[in-house]
Amino acid sequence: MGILQGKKGLILGVANERSIAWSIARLAHREGATLGFNFVGEALEKRVRPLAETLDADIVEPLDVTSDAQLDAFFSKVEKKWGGLDFLVHSIAFANKASLRGRFIETSRSDFHLALDVSCYSLVAVARRAVPLMKEGGSLLTLTYIGSIRAVPNYNVMGVAKAALESTVRYLASDLGTEGIRVNAVSAGPIKTLAASGISGFKELLTNYEKATALKRNVSLDDVGKSALYLVSDLSSGVTGEVHYVDAGFRISLGLIR
Ligand code: NAD
């Protein structure tokens, strides 16, 4: 029997088969979970719906996290369909391309607001609507990156958003502990995805990263997916408010290329 047998989970943030969210979904399905997905706009619906169908998804509905109306509609559909929820994966981030290159000091007010709204506030927004459905406790998981605690060239405003996101994880964990709901983040090493392709110099980052990690390799989608399984399942029942690094040991290395 799989570790997520009988569990219902929402996977927010699949754009295509290279998405971190998709890797988590595939593995969660293999472990017995029943899944629900969102998509943003018609173009992504065409990609997400067929993928979701391969995992016999129960729910595939529109959800742009900047819209309170769409958030309400999405979670009301989840309540009608499932009446409960065991876990939720938040694998969503966005910043304007112009703010992901050059000097951080040039970040405009509107680009700052947009990045923080989509990449951080959205976790609060989905948590508030998911929690009433987690009647028997649950697990919320988000995705972050080491640019939250180090100044990574070109990551800029997204680093600030990830710092706020990691703090949000701790505050939500503290709020929700009495309801048996755990909140954690996986801090993943760099992986070539749609979102990553918006970061200037990403290819170079991948090449250098590989040489600087303890394991002397980049992380795979599977590496991240497997750790996510631990955090959304009962295997991590005593873990909350954590940022768990899945980075091939980059954080603990000196970062020197050997
Ligand atoms: P991705 O492009 O596959 O996923 C990003 C998702 O965010 C997409 O599905 C997109 O539709 C969604 N999104 C953007 N704006 C949205 C909105 N307004 N409403 C709803 N959804 C919206 O890329 P990914 O790399 O799989 O990113 C997933 C998460 O992993 C992000 O939080 C990212 O910062 C984080 N992460 C990525 C890496 C990496 O190197 N790829 C490393 C560490 C952390």
Characteristic terms for this protein:
7 strands; alpha/beta; 7 helices; 258 residues
Give the overall average pLDDT.
96
What is the CA-CA span between the terminal residues?
Answer: 43 Å
What profile does the largest beta sheet have?
7 strands, parallel
The counted number of beta strands is 7
Indicate the multimeric state.
single chain
Ligand identities: nicotinamide-adenine-dinucleotide
Overall shape:
globular
Helix/strand-derived category reads alpha/beta
**SSE series:** EHEHEHEHEHEHHE
Word description of this protein:
The protein has about 260 residues and is α/β, with parallel strands linked by helices. It is built from 7 helices and 7 strands; from the N terminus they run βαβαβαβαβαβααβ. The chain has a 7-stranded parallel sheet, with helices on both faces. α1 packs across α7 (about 220-230) and α3 (about 70-80) runs parallel beside α4. The N and C termini lie far apart (about 45 Å). About 45% of the residues are buried. Bound molecules: nicotinamide-adenine-dinucleotide. The site of nicotinamide-adenine-dinucleotide has 27 residues, from α1 and β5.
